[in-house]
Amino acid sequence: MVRSMTGFGRGVTTTTNFQLTIELRSVNHRFLEVHSRFPKDWMEAEMLAKKTISRALSRGKVDVSIHFKELTQSVPTIEVNMDLVQAYEKARQQVAKIAPLPTQWDMAELHALDHVFIQQQEEVALTQVNEAVLTALQEALANLLTMRQAEGELLANVLMEQKQQLQQQIALIEQQSDLAVSKYRERLQERLSMLSSDDYVDERAVVEVAIFADRVDISEELDRLHSHIHQFETTLQSTEAIGRKLDFIMQEMHREINTIGSKNQSTVVSVAVVQAKTILEKMREQVQNVE
C-alpha cells in the first residue's frame, strides 16, 4: 500500500471547561521530523503527542499546532498580601510625620501599591489536558492518514503507468540488441571481402564478431532491469513504509540503463535509452513523495 507524505488532519475535543483543536500538516522529508507549538506548561502532553505521532508515521516533516479555547470564565480568587500592606502603612506613617497625608487609605492608593493584590486563576488539571490532547490527536492522525493514503493511491497509479512506459522502452532496446550483432557481422564481411580471400574473411569475421558481441552484450543488464521492475511491483503492494526502498530501486534501474547506453551501437537504442532515463527521472520524482 502506497502512502504519500503530504497531508493534513484536524482533531477537536470538547470538555466542560475548554475546547481543544489539534492540526497536523505533513510534507516530504527523508526522516520523521515533528515540530510542535504547545503551551510551555504542557510539556508532558507535548511529549505524549510526539510519541503517538512517531508510532503512526514513518517519514515526513510534521507540523503540530494546537488551539485552546476556554468555554467557562471562572471567577478569579483575589488574595491580599497583608504583611505588605502593613509594611506600606508603617512607611506611610513615617512620611506623615514630615508631610501632610490623609489619615485613611482609599482603593486607588491600594491598587497603586505593587503586589498587594494577588489574582489567582483556576488552572486546568494537567491530566485533563493530556487526555484531551490524545483524544484530539487521534482524530487528527486518522484524518491525516486518510489523506496520505488517498494521495498514495494516486501516486501508485501514476507510478504504474510510468513503469509500463519504461517497459516499452526496454522491450525496444531488447529487440534492437538482438539485431546489433548480425548487422555488424554483415558490415564486417562486406569490408573484409574487399580486401582478401573468402577463407580469410570467414576466419577474421568470426573473431571480430565475437569480440564485438562480447563488448555490446547487455543481457545481464536487461536481466537485472527485469528483476528491479519485479521488485518495484512487489514493493508497491507492501503494507510497510516503502519510500526509501523504491528510491533505491530507482537508482539501480538508472545504473543499468546508463550501462546499456554506454554499450549501445544503435541510434534507435540511443533514443530508447534517453526516453527510459526521462521516465525513470519522473518516477523518482514521484517516489520522493512516498512514505
Report on the structure:
The chain has 291 residues and is an alpha+beta fold. The protein has three domains: 7-73 and 125-149, Ribosomal Protein S5, domain 2, CATH 3.30.230; 77-120, no CATH class; 150-287, no CATH class. It is 63% helix and 15% strand. The strands form two sheets. Strands 1-2-4-3 form a four-stranded mixed β-sheet. A two-stranded antiparallel sheet has the order 5-6. Strand 1 (7-14) and strand 2 (18-27) form a beta hairpin. Helix 1 runs parallel beside helix 4, helix 4 runs antiparallel to helix 5 (198-216) and helix 7 runs antiparallel to helix 8 (267-287). The termini are close together. The model has no long low-confidence stretch (mean pLDDT 83).
Layout of SSEs?
Elements: E1 7-14, E2 18-27, E3 32-37, H1 43-56, E4 60-70, E5 77-80, H2 82-96, H3 107-112, E6 117-120, H4 126-193, H5 198-216, H6 219-236, H7 243-263, H8 267-287
Parallel strand pairs: 3-4
Antiparallel strand pairs: 1-2, 2-4, 5-6
Helix pairs in contact: 1-4, 4-5, 4-6, 4-8, 6-7, 7-8
Question: What's the short story on this structure?
Answer:
With 291 residues, the chain is of the alpha+beta class.
Main features:
YicC-like_C; YicC/YloC-like; 291 residues; rod-shaped; 4-stranded mixed β-sheet; alpha+beta; two-stranded antiparallel ribbon
